[in-house]
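Protocol step 4 of 5: obtain the predicted structure for the target chain.
Materials: sequence only (see below). No template structures provided, no constraints applied. The aim of this step is simply to have a reference model before the mutagenesis design in step 5. Sequence pasted as it appears in the construct record:
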Amino acid sequence: MKIVFDRNKCTGAYSCVQEEPEKWKPASDGKVDLDGSVQKKPGIFECAITQEELEKARIAAAVCPASAIKVVEE
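Step 4 output (structure tokens):
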């Protein structure tokens, strides 16, 4: 399972930070950073998650007004 974050779409609403501050961090450019992620393509970041982190990741994805966060269950 993983989070796929399209930082290009991020509008800096910080909804994800409010829901999961241990994973999402405000960045100096007004957007957010996904802690522990790896950039796979320009602006596209991925981070593996555990079963225990799955529900919080789903909530962060659901509250993102830009739909920049996806949870992929492999």
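Step 4 remarks: Strands lie at 2-6, 24-26, 32-34, 38-41, 44-48, 69-72. The chain has a mean pLDDT of 97.
Proceed to step 5.
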